[in-house]
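Handout, section B. The chain below has 158 residues.
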Amino acid sequence: MRRKRIGMGAALAVGALAVTGLAFAPTAAAVTPDTATINADCGSFGSGEATLTATQDGTAATITVTSAVTAPIALSEDSISSTLTLVNNTTGGTSVFTGTENPAIAAGDPVTVGPLDGTVASGDSLEAYGGSLQLTVFGITVTCTATAAQSPGPFVFD
């Protein structure tokens, strides 16, 4: 009987330590900042401020873009193919985020695409300036580029 009590007590102690360890474990990886703005030039399709919102889960990251382009006609959900290329200040290369997700967009409303999926490494510093956003709708491709560095600064991934 005494062995059972000691065994049960040890199991409870180990369980309590495990729960305490979880309470003090580091939180999930995060990107900072999680939102940035750029001034974008989309050629004859328009220009202006665009917002980029980033999330991270390990090496998987997503970016949603609310662009400076307004829809000339109503666009149905998931009808835009998008490729966002960001400059990777850490590696000197680029990082690409792609997807075909967008909400339904009324004529005259800003075009929102994403989340666009990409892969990141810990410490990656990604910047829109020097990269591009390509939106393809009905076979027409619109390319937008940042005219200056994003604010408040590049996305830095944990």
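Note. The chain has one domain: 31-157. Compare this with the example in section A.
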